[in-house]
């Protein structure tokens, strides 16, 4: 524009657009509202539900889901998706069962490190080869399942030495299952690290606007690889938790956790388009999903509806949290 | 998943007439021949007539699934709903034709109803995509779960075994050395090709993957076509589910397990781009044969069949990387 | 070419009724009036040129004419009838069609399909293609413009010029819809054509005039004068006049386009006295080549503002991005302050003390939903951290200081940047490079795009201040006027080469016309 178009700059409003819409405000509280509503509904349906014993059992089963969802949330915050978490966790249970006799107490760390490494490889493939994350991880899912089937000979491997995972079955302060405690600590540590370091900014910027982040000189590629690495490590930890509960490793043990984990992330309100959301939200989302899981039989719904519910929840939650301004054509 | 055109320079983007087209199109068939010859050299079991028949027969279901998914991929969308949709159709058909669970004996009508159910599920994916603006990989993941849930509900703890004559004949009766299932797959490929080549639906699906905005600028409303493509894909998955039931003589919830990924692999290997707008049914058919020959050949030379998925995973990553790398730009956004 | 007259359908309008008339069209965007009362008359069977600088409102006007933009007020009349255009289809129904700047063909369909896309008519029956009919329909259109393209060729196998012919053939399909002689808008049709192809296009345009009206938009004024009967000039969202092309020179047009030269004051040129000392060289580029530019040499001294000017496609934007590591280079050596520069990534550029303000502020410049503070400290994290740990207090005091210093108007440092006005957003983006105080070279790609005059003036003052403190600046200005007003030296780029270095000292500035001569 060569000549002034507007003569009086003072008339320009300071703030151009309004704040969050009511719908956005509502969705930001959605997971907590859902959690409370579910608890209330279940208590009404079965007054015995709100007891220490059944609540303890519920959060104990939620632990692996919390960890899985928390890790994958980082990838989603960066604008990608990790569909391999469940298969990687299954593979990790096999690793655990196979390595335990040799490595003993170090097995847990070794499994988490191996899973983190595998996650990192996926991240590098995504970043270097520029393959969309869902394809890399879909391919990863298939590869991990195959590897798990081959090395385990397609069957469960019993874990005889239960000492290595015994600590996860303990209770903190008598009530809180250790597995859940560890899951919350993991969430808290990741959240704290993000908050205290520039990582939060990097991840948010990458997720909201990758090109702007790159042109601002943020380490977009390293952040993404890091997110996949953490996601892998979390899958490894979830695997250890599963082994502690089932006393075996199996090539398909965690496979049915993919949908609940994705559902937990989107129910928590993390936008699938990236940037918006948090790892705490996924913790709440995972609790919501777990309550649904344990609650459906209580209200007399056959567990077959669980799957249908996941499907509906995923689509509905994504529709509510999606940042439509970002995607012009939805593919 | 990639959001393009954020830093496209018009001058730089000036495309030249492509010369590599022929190579790109002839690559997959060439690869098929090479793989086939290689395995024939390696294994005498592989090059037997019986094994070739076997490859064709096992390829049948995947070919039908791939027919469906190809239309979706051509639009630049993705479809992960095959396992759920196939599972629902597999159980539905088992309960509708003559079986051990109920008195239904609907025969062909039962098959059509199962396909209709599958088409409806595909339609739901498409509607969620265009109405709720939820990306297709999420809607189809959700619909897959819904399909599996429906299948589990219908399954109801007792496996339905089929006694229907027509369905039972599909995998065993042969015509010119190939089972009826294989002929059904051929028919699907032909129908798919005709749709792709001669109908507005097929051409628009292709165009949506090429340049969706241009269609809108030309006054074409793309939403109905998207829904229709997902519905069509659902119908193909439904038929595939029915075929699995005929193979197993029973309806299984897991009838479609792994077919989503195998079909994506086949389509991508055949030369269909995940970004849409290129490839087609015939490409995908070649891709299916590559995947099946590779899978079969590896087993014949003594590789554990459990590697099947792993091989597919590697192929798909490699094929996508090969397609994406030449167009790589700095500062490109990859989701 | 059986022009309009199908007597049973559309009435042949009186020859004096304009084919298209725009009256007092107004369109606001937040912070900018893109159209501020534009009037335009397109007569029957004439080629009307539309000229104007970047941001003069040309593209908004064109979009309004094909229903892609809805004006806030004003009227559009087609053949003496007032119309409302709410979509491309409605515009087509009234006989208005546009050949878009970015070609709007589906690359993987055949030429025939593209030509009939959306109005296949007899080419499709019951959803089934009748290829032979379709080919004939397309051939008819191609015959109209005398093109010998094979209608069944895939569009992406055609040359650029051929695709443009396909596009024109496609636009001519609107004749069938409106039953009237069409109005064809050609938006920068020559920008990526070679000279031979341009000649063919011009022949084509003259042919079109026989049975249609044409609106021709181009940056290249000589072309406009060559092919048009009349030129209408836009400036600042207003119509500033019309020129009959017979006997007119590009200089006349250009004078109308830029209007009176803005006062030097506007660019704060006088307020900052350059020191007489010889300038210390900061950036030195030798033989830099990339995909869209080659053999570029450029020197920028500390404290110097060097403007690069050039028409669309001159490659100047890519040079800028290459310096920031955001565009690959093929050859060349770049040193910054005597040290060889690593051009492999934006990270390396940032570490070397280079800052870049992209032209697409909303997409590439800022992270909209993040706060002002986080946007400001996004790059120079060290400015808010102690070791690896973020110090919120340090950040807030730093950010508040810069908010005050640049007088950024924001309710709070925690406000989302997307809620600020354009000028304030741009100041935050600029501040991003300044907070650490280590910036040595600033690459500004259209830093005032979409800003109002007050905000522009502030950005100019800031640029002066920075230059004064020793920062070397490369400026891709929004207009020639701006480039001249702000730069100490101007480099002209044309077809990917730096063709001319024009000194531009305060008090002895070249005129835009001097530069235009070098640009085309």
TrEMBL record, chain A:
MF annotations from Gene Ontology: transmembrane transporter activity
Highest taxon of the lineage: Bacteria
Topology of this chain in the membrane: Multi-pass membrane protein
Membrane in keyword set: yes
Single GO cellular component term: plasma membrane
CDD domains, alphabetized: TM_PBP1_transp_AraH_like
Name the UniProt record assigns to this protein: Ribose transport system permease protein
Classification lineage: Bacteria, Bacillati, Actinomycetota, Actinomycetes, Propionibacteriales
Automatic annotation (TrEMBL), chain B:
Regions crossing the membrane: 26-43, 55-74, 80-99, 106-131, 137-155, 175-195, 227-246, 258-274, 281-299, 305-325
GO cellular component, one term: plasma membrane
Keyword set includes Membrane: yes
Signal peptide: none
Keyword Mitochondrion belongs to the record: no
GO molecular function: transmembrane transporter activity
Protein name according to UniProt: Ribose transport system permease protein
Entry superkingdom: Bacteria
Localization in the cell: Cell membrane
Membrane topology: Multi-pass membrane protein
Keywords: Cell membrane, Membrane, Transmembrane, Transmembrane helix
InterPro entries assigned to the protein according to its UniProt record, in alphabetical order: ABC_transp_permease
From TrEMBL, chain C:
Ranges where the ABC transporter domain occurs: 20-261, 267-520
Cleaved signal peptide residues: none
Any GO MF annotation of the entry: ATP hydrolysis activity
Keyword ATP-binding: yes
Entry annotated with the keyword RNA-binding: no
UniProt keywords, alphabetically: ATP-binding, Nucleotide-binding, Repeat, Transport
Pfam family, one: ABC_tran
Matches recorded under SMART domains: AAA
Xref: InterPro entries: AAA+_ATPase, ABC_carbohydrate_import_ATPase, ABC_transporter-like_ATP-bd, ABC_transporter-like_CS, P-loop_NTPase
Protein name: Ribose transport system ATP-binding protein
Species: Nocardioides lianchengensis
């Amino acid at each position: 524009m060569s000549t002034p178009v507007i003569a009086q700059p003072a008339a320009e409003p300071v703030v151009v657009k309004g704040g969050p819409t009511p719908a956005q405000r509502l969705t930001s509280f959605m997971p907590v509202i859902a959690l409370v509503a579910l608890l209330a509904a279940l208590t009404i349906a079965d007054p015995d539900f709100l007891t220490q014993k059944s609540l303890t059992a519920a959060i104990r089963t939620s632990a692996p889901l919390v960890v899985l969802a928390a890790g994958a949330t980082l990838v989603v915050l960066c604008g990608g998706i990790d569909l391999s978490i469940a298969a990687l966790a299954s593979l990790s249970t096999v690793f655990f069962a196979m390595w335990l006799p040799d490595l003993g107490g170090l097995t847990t760390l070794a499994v988490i490190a191996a899973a983190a490494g595998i996650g990192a490889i996926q991240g590098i493939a995504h970043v270097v080869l520029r393959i969309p994350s869902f394809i890399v991880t879909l391919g990863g899912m298939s590869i991990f399942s195959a590897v798990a089937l081959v090395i385990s000979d397609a069957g469960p491997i019993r874990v005889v030495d239960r000492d290595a995972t015994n600590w996860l079955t303990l209770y903190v302060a008598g009530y809180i299952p250790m597995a859940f405690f560890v899951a919350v600590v993991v969430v808290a540590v990741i959240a704290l690290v993000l908050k205290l370091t520039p990582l939060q900014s990097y991840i948010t910027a990458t997720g909201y606007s990758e090109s702007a982040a790159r042109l601002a000189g943020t380490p977009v590629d390293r952040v993404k690889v890091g997110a996949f690495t953490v996601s892998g490590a979390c899958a490894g930890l979830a695997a250890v938790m599963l082994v502690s509960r089932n006393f075996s490793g199996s090539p398909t043990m965690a496979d049915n956790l993919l949908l609940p984990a994705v559902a937990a992330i989107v129910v928590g309100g993390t936008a699938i388009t990236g940037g918006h959301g948090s790892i705490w939200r996924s913790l709440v989302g995972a609790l919501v999903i777990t309550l649904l899981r344990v609650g459906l039989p209580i209200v007399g719904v056959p567990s077959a509806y669980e799957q249908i519910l996941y499907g509906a929840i995923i689509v509905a939650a994504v529709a509510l949290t999606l940042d439509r301004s970002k995607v012009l054509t939805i593919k | 998943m990639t959001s393009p055109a954020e830093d496209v320079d018009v001058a730089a983007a000036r495309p030249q007439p492509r010369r590599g087209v022929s190579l790109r199109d002839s690559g997959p068939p060439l690869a098929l021949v090479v793989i086939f010859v290689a395995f024939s050299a390696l294994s005498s079991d592989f090059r037997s007539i019986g094994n070739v028949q076997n490859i064709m027969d096992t390829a049948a279901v995947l070919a039908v699934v791939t027919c469906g998914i190809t239309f979706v991929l051509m639009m630049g969308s993705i479809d992960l709903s095959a396992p759920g949709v196939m599972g629902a159709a597999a159980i539905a058909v088992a309960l509708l034709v003559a079986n051990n669970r109920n008195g239904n004996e609907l025969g062909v009508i039962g098959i059509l109803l199962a396909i209709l159910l599958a088409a409806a599920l595909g339609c739901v994916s498409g509607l969620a995509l265009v109405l709720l603006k939820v990306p297709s990989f999420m809607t189809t993941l959700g619909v897959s779960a819904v399909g599996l849930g429906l299948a589990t509900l219908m399954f109801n703890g007792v496996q339905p075994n089929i006694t229907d004559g027509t369905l039972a004949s599909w995998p065993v009766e042969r015509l010119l050395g190939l089972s009826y299932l294989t002929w059904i797959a051929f028919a699907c490929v032909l129908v798919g090709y005709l749709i792709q080549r001669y109908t507005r639906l097929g051409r628009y699906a292709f165009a949506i993957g090429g340049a969706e905005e241009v269609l809108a600028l030309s006054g074409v409303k793309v939403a109905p076509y998207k829904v229709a493509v997902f519905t069509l894909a659902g119908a193909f998955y439904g038929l595939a589910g029915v075929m699995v039931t005929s193979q197993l003589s029973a309806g299984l919830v897991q009838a479609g397990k792994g077919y989503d990924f195998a079909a994506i692999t086949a389509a991508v290997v055949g030369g269909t781009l995940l970004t849409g707008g290129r490839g087609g049914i015939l490409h995908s058919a070649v891709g299916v044969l590559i995947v099946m020959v590779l899978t079969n050949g590896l087993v014949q030379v003594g590789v554990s069949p459990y590697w099947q998925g792993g091989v597919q995973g590697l192929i798909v990553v490699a094929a996508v990387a090969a397609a994406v790398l030449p167009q790589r730009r700095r500062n490109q956004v990859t989701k | 070419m059986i022009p309009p007259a199908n007597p049973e359908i559309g009435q042949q309008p009186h020859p004096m009724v304009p084919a298209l008339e725009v009256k007092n069209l107004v369109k606001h965007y937040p912070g900018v009036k893109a159209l501020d009362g534009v009037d335009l008359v397109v007569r029957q069977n004439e080629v009307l040129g539309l000229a104007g600088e970047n941001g003069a409102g040309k593209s908004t006007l064109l979009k309004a004419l094909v229903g892609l933009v809805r004006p806030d007020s004003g009227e559009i009349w087609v053949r003496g009838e007032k119309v409302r255009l709410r979509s491309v289809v409605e515009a087509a129904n009234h006989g208005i069609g546009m050949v878009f700047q970015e070609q709007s063909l589906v690359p993987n369909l055949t030429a025939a399909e593209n030509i009939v896309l959306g109005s296949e008519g007899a080419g499709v029956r019951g959803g089934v293609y009748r290829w032979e009919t379709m080919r004939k329909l397309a051939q008819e259109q191609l015959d109209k413009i005398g093109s010998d393209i094979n209608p069944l060729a895939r569009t992406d196998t055609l040359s650029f010029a051929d695709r443009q012919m396909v596009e024109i053939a496609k636009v001519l399909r609107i004749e069938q819809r409106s039953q009237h002689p069409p109005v064809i808008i050609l938006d920068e049709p020559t920008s990526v054509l070679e000279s031979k192809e341009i000649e063919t296009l011009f022949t084509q345009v003259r042919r079109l005039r026989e049975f249609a009206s044409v609106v021709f938009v181009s940056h290249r004024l000589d072309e406009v004068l060559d092919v048009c009967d009349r030129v209408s000039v836009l400036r600042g969202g207003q119509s500033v006049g019309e020129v009959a092309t017979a006997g007119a020179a590009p200089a006349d047009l250009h004078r109308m386009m830029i209007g009176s030269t803005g006062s030097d004051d506007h660019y704060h040129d006088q307020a900052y006295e350059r020191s007489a000392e010889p300038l210390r060289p900061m950036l030195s580029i030798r033989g830099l080549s990339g995909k869209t530019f080659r053999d570029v040499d450029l020197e920028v001294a500390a404290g110097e503002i060097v403007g690069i000017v050039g028409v669309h496609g001159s490659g100047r934007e890519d040079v800028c991005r290459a310096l920031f590591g955001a565009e690959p280079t093929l050859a060349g050596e770049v040193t910054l302050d005597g040290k060889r520069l690593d051009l492999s990534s934006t990270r390396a550029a940032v570490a070397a003390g280079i800052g870049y303000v992209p032209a697409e502020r909303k997409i590439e410049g800022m992270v909209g939903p993040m706060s002002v503070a986080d946007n400001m400290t996004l790059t120079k994290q060290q400015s808010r951290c102690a070791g690896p740990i973020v110090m919120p207090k340090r950040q807030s005091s730093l950010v508040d200081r810069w908010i005050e210093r640049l007088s950024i108007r924001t309710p709070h440092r925690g406000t989302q940047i997307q809620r600020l006005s354009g000028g304030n957003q741009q100041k935050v983006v600029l501040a991003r490079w300044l907070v650490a105080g280590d910036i040595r070279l600033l690459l500004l790609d259209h830093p005032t795009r979409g800003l109002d005059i007050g905000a522009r003036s502030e950005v100019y003052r800031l640029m002066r201040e920075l230059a004064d403190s020793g920062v070397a600046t490369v400026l891709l200005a929004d207009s020639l006027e701006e480039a001249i007003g702000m730069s100490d030296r101007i480099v002209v780029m044309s077809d990917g080469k730096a063709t001319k270095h024009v000194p531009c000292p305060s008090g002895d500035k070249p005129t835009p016309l001097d530069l235009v001569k070098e640009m085309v």
